Amino acid sequence: PQAASARSDVRDCSVDPPYLPPTATNTTARLAALRGTMRAHGIHAYIVPSTDAHMSEYIAERDSRLGWLTGFTGSAGTGVVTQDKAALWTDSRYWTQAERQLDCNWELQRTTWIESIGLWILEAVPVGGNISLDPFLFSIDTWNSYSRALHGSGRTLLPIETNLVDQVWGDQRPPPASSEIYSLPPAFTGSSWQEKVAGIRQQMEQHVRRPTAVLLSGLEETAWLFNLRGDDIPYNPVFYAYTLLTNTTISLFVNETRLAAAARQSLQAGCPGPLCVELREYGQARTHLRHYAQGNVTIWLGTEYTTYGLYSVIPQ
Fold first, then answer.
1. Are 271 and 292 in contact (CB under 8 A)?
2. 211-250 pLDDT tens trace
3. Is the peptide bond before 272 cis (omega within 30 degrees of 0)?
């Protein structure tokens, strides 16, 4: 049967046994483990995106959940797993690559439309079923699209904060980045971070809604604002962080042990005061945001970069 395969570098699932090129990943054990976890949580379909918690196009190995689960390493895609099916959606740049990397556990869907994913899910999951995802890996916009696609179908879109792929991946999952976060010299930045903060505060004042805070979730936004760089993602000079900037305070959520001494000094030179950067643990962003949102406040955020998980702690 191998010889019969016209192109031996792509899979052929129509023969028995199926032909898989050496580039394909065997995902049987991973899928079985994920399905066991899904059953334990009462979940009928689980959606796995190709992004990280900051909607980055390029991601760190640690965040490559779709890549680990499917074997497919393209930069854009969505996987959906049910108890008896698994499918991957990706665009035309990656169709050939997917046929080389996927094994026959996976159907390849040659589109990226959320409507198409929604229709597939409605066919695969009975009425009354739970469709689940990690709310910290989907932007507000994308969450709303899924919500619309499943609306009125009798299925429930259920955010679950434990990432099921991470659970199954376990201690095989690569560790978080630990390299140094450093300041860019003024020659490269154009303006100091203090000037940039003043500029944003001015925009807040002039905005018709008079926001009391700006939340920055995109990694390049925080890197730009503070003139800091890192290498948490290969070939991308960024680091994992969130920023909450108000009229009088600046909170930077980051693993502060990684800040170079000069960077920390630059951030805290104006302490205490409105140009003092308070360093908080990266993992506390959501708790802090929820606490801040209890007051009489208006938070300005981007629907494309902010995750539904963060957005959902802010009252209407």
1. no
2. 999 999 999 999 999 999 999 999 999 999 999 999 999 9
3. yes
- Long-range contacts of residues 110-114, Cβ cutoff 8 Å, at least 24 apart: 112/76, 112/77, 112/78, 113/89, 114/142, 114/145, 114/146, 114/149
Q: Residues 215, 301: contact at Cβ < 8 Å?
A: yes
Structure tokens at 50: 């190709």
* Model confidence, pTM: 0.93
**Tokens at 238, concatenated:** 């960024």
| C-alpha gyration radius of the chain | 22
The amino acid occupying position 132 is S
- Reference 97, options 23, 32, 47, 162; nearest CA is 23
Q: What is the DSSP string of the chain?
A: -TTT-S-TTS-BTTSSSPB--TT----HHHHHHHHHHHHHHT-SEEEEES--TT--SS--GGG-HHHHHHS---SS-EEEEESS-EEEE--GGGHHHHHHH--TT-EEES---HHHHHHHHHHHS-TT-EEEE-GGGSBHHHHHHHHHHHTTTT-EEEE-SS-HHHHHHGGGSPPPP-SPBEEPPHHHHSS-HHHHHHHHHHHHHHSTT--SEEEE-SHHHHHHHHTEE--SBTTB---S-EEEEESS-EEEES-GGGB-HHHHHHHHTT-SSTT-EEEE-GGGHHHHHHHHTTSS--EE--TTTSBHHHHTTS--
- Which residue from 254, 246, 314, 309 is spatially nearest to 55, judged by alpha carbons? 309
Beta-strand pair 182-183/277-280: unpaired
- Two tokens, residue 174: 């690569």
Give the separation between CA 101 and CA 142, rounded to whole angstroms.
26
Encode pLDDT of 164-194 as tens digits. 999 999 999 999 999 999 999 988 998 999 9
User: Which of 85, 77, 89, 120 lies closest to 104, judged by CA?
Assistant: 85
Angstrom distance (rounded) from CA 96 to CA 251:
45
